[in-house]
Amino acid sequence: MKPTFRARNVPSSVYAPHEDQQHASLHTEQFQQRHFKKLRIKKVITRLLLILGFTVLLAVITLGGRVAAESSHLLGAFGEGNVLIKIKHLIAPPEKTIMGESDDQINILMLGIGGQGHEGELLTDAMGIMSIQPSTKQAAVISIPRDLYVPIPGYGMRRINNAYALGQMSNTTTGGRLAMDTAQKVFNIPIHFYARIDFAGFQNAINAIGGIDVDVKEKLVDPFFPVANTYGVRTLVIEKGFQHMDGKVALDYARSRQTTSDFSRAHRQQEILAAVKNKVASSDILSKTMKAEKLIGILGDHFETNIQPWQLLRLLEIGKTLNTSSVVYKVIDDSENGPLKSTIGGGGAYYLVPKSGTYEELQNLARNLFENSEVVLEKARIIVENGTTSPGLARTIGNILKAKNFDIVAMNNAASLNTEKTVVYDISLGEKNITFNALLETLGAQPGVFIPDDVLSKKDSADIVVVLGKDKIPLNAVATQNTTTY
Question: Residue 385: which H helix or E strand, with range?
């Protein structure tokens, strides 16, 4: 039997056999109150640290060559653990490839934790997979929700955010290793590296580069922004237009949930990513030895990775040609068209589980990240409609298209349920030709010459509408017994 000791300041909650039972039922007022508070303190950052970690890693990979030119000795900092521990003995084997390179997909698990001084400091509040495809010079990110219910090797079914903390307390593995093993099992792809960052690392790094200039597209007013180390809230206001932000303001801007959609928050985080990239790319900050040492020194206290020095140098070479303006972002969620659903487990615990009952859809997403890259960049919004009486056809075909990286924004019934042949309507009037032609080829469909009024009325919410005909019924292998046709 493994001794029950508390190593590395692991929060006690991860030792409890049923730590999730601390939550009350979703259907009770008590749970709703507690759930609301936790959203303000912890879950407000579900995707934040992913973008922060990716920002830091992307800057290191794409601009690290400039750091290396002035401060090559600092590259020895990389390797599992604190990134300044191995500041000496940098060895870069020549002509050597890194893991994943021969398969043309390098996968890095990004982990975000609150860090010292935060509640549940080692529980992962954000997680994502960053993939790099060297042959196409592309990068992609999958955001993983912390409440995803998964098998953690050696610990059974738990929320995925427990993996890192459980590994940190283990005497047979590490937090990074267990988190990698868990993600690899769920997504069925090799996870080659991991990188972990905390709040302070991001905030201090922004300050070290002199702040960032963010083009705020829409005024932000969040009356429920959390006050640090309390359950209190305050009103956060960020004006529209270009705003110079220090680390604290940038962190607040990215963390805010306000009362809009997840898309709005993700967009703000992408604005910050763009601002960081532009700042370090357009200035000589990282070409100055003292600045570079300060920046990497800050990361050393708040950043952890298993990337070895020679592997970092190879990533630098790959990163020099990486197209950072065309990063693909994928969010796994429980929205109407998402692959997950919320459920209540034992003791009233809240989880997210696959709607299909398996992780197959998540695995397809991870395997096909770089498929139809031109379609992804065009960002055409697609509605899939069932023009037949075959139950579940729109969802079946919609999920097939989503796995091929088409942006499906809705799946529902068509006005007519007697369509013979599948038709694709371009209501963008030629602005989304790449996606339109790709859909015609993928579905073997015919283009809509005359656009019906009911289809044209959707132009504010979509660029392309697919009306499925009876010719696609054979693909609907598993008919559902839903009360609605779609």
Answer: strand 381-386
Contacts 24+ apart (CB under 8 A), 443-447: 443/397, 443/472, 444/471, 445/421, 446/421, 446/422, 447/423
Would you state the CATH architecture of domain 38-361?
Answer: 3-Layer(aba) Sandwich (3.40)
> Is-same-fold flag (38-361; 371-475)?
no
**Domain residue ranges of the chain, discontinuous segments joined by +:** 38-361, 371-475
CA–CA gap between residue 408 and residue 425 (Å, rounded): 14
Q: How far apart are CA 361 and CA 402, in angstroms?
A: 9
> Which pTM value belongs to this model?
0.70
371-475 CATH: 3.30.70
Find all residues with CB under 8 Å of 242, minimum gap 6, and list them. Answer: 213, 214, 215, 216
Given the structure tokens 């270009």, which residue do they identify? 242
Mutual angle of helices 175-187 and 360-367, in 10-degree steps:
100
Short-list 296, 272, 293, 300, CA closest to 211: 272
Q: Is the dihedral of CA 445, 403, 134, 126 positive or negative?
A: positive
Contact, 49 vs 200, CB < 8 A?
no
Q: What is the C-alpha to C-alpha distance for residues 124 and 54, in angstroms, rounded to an integer?
A: 15
**Residues 133-185 pLDDT 10s:** 999 888 888 888 888 999 999 999 999 999 999 998 888 888 999 999 999 99
